[in-house]
Amino acid sequence: MDERFSRTQMLLGNEAIEKLAHSRVAVFGIGGVGGYALEALARSGVGALDLIDSDTVSLSNINRQIIALESTLGKYKTKAAAERIAQINPDCAVVEHRIFYNKDTADSIDFKQFDYVVDAVDTISAKLLIVQNAEKACVPVISSMGAGNKLDPTSFEVADIYQTCVCPVARVMRHELKKLGIERLKVVYSKEKPVEIKRVSDVNRRSVPASNAFVPPTAGLIIAGEVVRDLAGI
Asked: 59 near 73, Cβ under 8 Å?
């Protein structure tokens, strides 16, 4: 037993730790939510992680993304995350996929090789594609709903998509998934109503949500907890 995971082993037991060590999880989107989910999965002893993101680390990421530092500015997010994972667990097998996941790149990812899929991307079209392909491959998936323009980290809940309310992203997802005939999807969502954005600089003029250091990470850690418990059979 690797001592680095001994405290987790005390909680979950040897069998669970072995299951995690032999599990392969794909994380789509290495941002404010996905980065923290990935961090917790690596620190929980998941043995193989696939990182899917085409973006590079920018200065505006520093306020909320765990991989964003002065030393990682300009790096591909997958590279920055892979280097971080290597410092946490050098035995973890990491595969980088530097792609923007859409219908043109979907064929490059074989969902059948995964034991679990984390959807932490921003676009509805990519979310729907991830969910559809996970369902086709009979692989469990958990999806993050909207975490932008929110201030209350205690408002997050885990639910089936059809039991959600308030969240605008969840509302659109419910509508689109129903049209696709997908009957269930585990999600992490917040009942907090989005706050009005305070436009204080040029960056706010773009079509991007406001965010902070505590709401997206909370969603990511909740996601990781669900994945770990499901994989370990807790």
From this structure: yes
CA distances from 72 to 79, 80, 84, 89 (A): 9, 6, 10, 19
β-pairing, 24-28 vs 48-52, is parallel
Closest CA to 56 of 28, 30, 93: 30
Which tens digit of pLDDT belongs to each residue from 79-133? 999 999 999 999 999 999 999 999 999 999 999 999 999 999 999 999 999 999 9
Closest CA to 161 of 128, 138, 129, 193: 128
Strand pairing partners for 119?
28, 143
Global pTM value? 0.95
Report the 10 Å Cβ neighbour count for 203. Answer: 11
Q: What is the CA radius of gyration of the chain?
A: 17
CA-nearest of 51, 45, 56, 58 to 9 is 45
CA distance 34 to 84: 14
